[in-house]
Every structure is written in structure tokens, then in C-alpha cells.
């Protein structure tokens, strides 16, 4: 039996989706896995521009979008790519999803044709990088309480505020910044070269170390009126982009869980104690069985939501279901795998602890477990418990 896909979930993938799976997996095995432990230990991506160009050639940036050089792949195809990337590392999947599902989607969905023409073709190839500035130091799960403001000054806009925990912030060429205005919350394209804009790298992270995380500071950043994303009005705009990124996490968490399971099985079959491989002990086999169930449930959940999305029938509550269920399952799998590996489980020679600490961040970013639980409760009761 195949522990990687015990229920043969991938049998339901189309030929194109399998090609995406195989291409991204081969790329991850050859270009990412040999280096990711070192990047994690160093706490950075040494050459993010080179990585971006490499991933641009792979075709994963904005692959679910159409036009402007985007691949126009379906939701399942994009999800499979996220699964294979996060099987390597959550930070690398985040590198792709922030670029495509957040920054590029915001421009593609809410920008003018001129804005799309200026940025999207270069972002597809990785020649330009974007970030998404929504979260603030005191405004995470409640983005409506943001303090960043944009005020009109003649034909210009002037932005002041701070954004926090911004992936790719210090290497981005353009930041999609959400700010409060007299007309409500609006989105702006802020070039990194704009006077008054700065990005400070956040150090001393224990999780998502193979990722660049930054604070964005906007100190009287003056922008022309053309910097406004005209189609983005109110919180629904940034939240719709977040739903796209969360969808990638639904698949990505399944990839991280699968990597932990396979590492634990390989280790248990080769680690000898009391004159036999520990895989032959009942307690170890029970742990493996529990992990196997979690991984396959996660893969089935991701595929089901992906098919709903491709059919145009996915509600944001479906994505909340997937993120809540799959991240929770992946955390269980990582913790159990680490127990099987024992002391070796804490080293970067194996991927388990790296996935385990990464998933601590995945569990809280782009919607905490509590927020997704309340989203599901509201979806089935019709009652809002947020306030």
C-alpha cells in the first residue's frame, strides 16, 4: 500500500493537474529540498530574487489567474502546487501564495487595466515581487480596527501607518496597502521606492524561518491618484484575497503532514531498538495509523473544496472548514512524527521539527483557528458570535 496516497486521492486528478503535481514536486526535490534546512537555520532566503525568477519560470506565480501572462490553471491545479511546495516548507509555499493569491489577485481583481499591465506580467515571471499590507501591530483578527490612514491632498493620497508580519515585505517592489479613508477602507499600490516607505526585517523568529517577514512603515507616503485600486471598496476586498491564500493553505497543510508521515515511516523502519525496527511495535504502528488517517482526510478535504471552487460553488466558509481541519490535522501529524523520531526529531537532518514549528504560524496567520471556528458556527446557525 502506498503511504504517500493511501486512498489514491490523486486518481481523481486530471492529466493537467498531475503534470502540475509532478513538475512542482520535481522542482522542489531538486531546487528547494537540498537547501531549505540551511535557509531555515540561517533564518532567511539568501537570494529571494533568484528564487523568484526560478519560480517564475516554473509558472506558479498567479497560476490560478488568467491573462497578463498568467497560466489560468484551475483551483485544484493551484492547490496541488501549494501541496507540493509546502511538503518542502511552509515558508516557500507562503512565498508563492503572497505573491499570487494576495498581491497579484488584488491587482487582477480590483486594479485598472493600466495597473495590471504595469505589474502582473513582471510578477508572473518573478521579475517583480509584491507583498500584502493588511495586518497591523494591534489589528490582526479584526482588520476593521486598522489605524493606517490615507487622506486626500489635492489629486494625491497621503498614507501614514504601520503594517506588521508582512511576508516578502523587505524584498517587494510593490506593496498592496490597505488603509482607512473618509470613504471607507481602500487599497493602494505603494512602490517600494516611494519616499516615506520603509520595510524592516523581523528577526529572531522561531517559525517560518525560511521566509522573509517584515514591518512596513508609511510615513507621509505621497501617491498619485492612479495608485488607488478603484475596484476595492471596504473590507470585503482584502478579505476576498485572504480567502484565496487560505485556500492554498488547505492544500499546503496536507503537504506538510504528508512529509512528516513519510519521514516517520522511513525512520521507524530503519531505527532498531530491542533487536527489531521500532515500526514493528504496536504503539508505533498505532501512531502511524493515526497519522495516515489524518493525512488522507486532509487530502480528501482539499480536493473536495478544490472541486467546489472550480465549479464556482465554494463559499468562504468552505475554505475556513479546510484551513481549520487540515492545519489541525497537520499539527497532530507533526507532533506524532516527532515522537517517533525521538531525539533525532529535533534536528534539521529531518524535516519534522521544521514543519512542526512552521505549522504553529500557519495555524494563526490568515485567520486563527478561533476565527475559522466562529465562521463555521455562523455558517450553520445563521448567528454571528464575533461581536
TrEMBL record:
Residues 16-127 form the Acyl-CoA dehydrogenase/oxidase N-terminal domain. Its EC number is 1.3.8.6. Residues 131-221 form the Acyl-CoA oxidase/dehydrogenase middle domain. GO terms for biological process: fatty acid beta-oxidation using acyl-CoA dehydrogenase; fatty-acyl-CoA biosynthetic process. One of its GO terms (molecular function) is glutaryl-CoA dehydrogenase activity. Belongs to the acyl-CoA dehydrogenase family. This is glutaryl-CoA dehydrogenase (ETF). It comes from Sphaerisporangium melleum. The lineage of its organism: Bacteria, Bacillati, Actinomycetota, Actinomycetes, Streptosporangiales.
Amino acid at each position: 500500500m502506498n503511504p504517500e496516497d493511501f486512498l489514491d486521492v490523486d486518481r481523481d486528478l486530471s492529466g493537467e493537474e498531475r503534470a502540475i503535481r509532478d513538475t512542482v514536486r520535481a522542482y522542489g526535490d531538486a531546487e528547494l529540498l537540498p537547501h531549505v534546512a540551511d535557509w531555515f537555520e540561517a533564518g532567511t532566503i539568501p537570494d529571494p530574487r533568484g528564487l523568484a525568477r526560478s519560480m517564475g519560470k516554473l509558472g506558479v506565480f498567479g497560476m490560478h489567474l488568467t491573462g497578463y501572462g498568467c497560466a489560468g490553471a484551475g483551483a485544484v491545479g493551484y492547490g496541488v502546487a501549494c501541496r507540493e511546495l509546502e511538503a518542502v516548507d511552509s515558508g516557500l509555499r507562503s512565498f508563492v501564495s503572497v505573491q499570487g493569491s494576495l498581491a497579484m489577485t488584488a491587482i487582477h481583481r480590483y486594479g485598472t487595466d493600466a495597473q495590471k499591465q504595469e505589474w502582473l506580467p513582471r510578477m508572473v515571471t518573478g521579475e517583480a515581487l509584491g507583498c500584502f499590507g493588511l495586518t497591523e501591530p494591534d489589528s490582526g483578527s479584526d482588520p476593521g480596527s486598522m489605524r493606517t490612514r490615507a487622506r486626500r491632498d489635492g489629486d494625491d493620497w497621503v498614507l501614514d501607518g504601520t503594517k506588521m508580519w508582512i511576508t516578502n515585505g523587505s524584498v517587494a517592489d510593490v506593496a498592496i496597502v490597505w488603509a482607512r479613508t473618509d470613504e471607507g477602507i481602500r487599497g493602494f499600490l505603494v512602490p517600494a521606492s516611494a519616499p516615506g516607505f520603509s520595510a524592516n526585517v523581523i528577526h529572531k523568529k522561531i517559525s517560518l524561518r525560511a521566509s522573509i517577514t517584515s514591518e512596513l512603515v508609511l510615513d507621509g507616503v505621497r501617491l498619485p491618484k492612479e495608485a488607488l485600486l478603484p475596484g476595492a471598496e471596504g473590507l470585503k476586498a482584502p478579505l476576498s484575497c485572504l480567502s484565496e491564500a487560505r485556500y492554498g493553505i488547505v492544500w499546503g497543510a496536507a503537504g506538510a503532514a504528508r512529509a512528516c508521515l513519510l519521514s516517520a515511516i522511513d525512520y521507524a523502519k530503519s531505527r532498531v531498538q530491542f533487536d527489531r525496527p521500532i515500526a514493528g511495535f504496536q504503539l508505533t504502528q498505532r501512531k502511524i495509523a493515526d497519522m495516515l488517517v489524518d493525512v488522507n482526510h486532509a487530502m480528501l478535504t482539499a480536493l473536495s473544496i478544490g472541486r467546489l471552487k472550480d465549479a464556482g460553488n465554494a463559499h468562504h466558509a468552505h475554505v475556513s472548514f479546510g484551513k481549520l481541519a487540515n492545519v489541525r490535522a497537520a499539527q497532530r501529524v507533526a507532533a506524532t512524527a516527532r515522537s517517533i523520531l525521538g531525539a533525532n526529531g529535533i534536528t534539521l537532518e529531518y524535516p519534522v521539527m521544521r514543519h512542526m514549528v512552521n505549522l504553529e504560524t500557519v495555524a494563526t496567520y490568515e485567520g486563527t483557528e478561533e476565527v475559522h471556528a466562529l465562521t463555521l458556527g455562523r455558517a450553520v446557525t445563521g448567528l454571528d458570535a464575533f461581536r
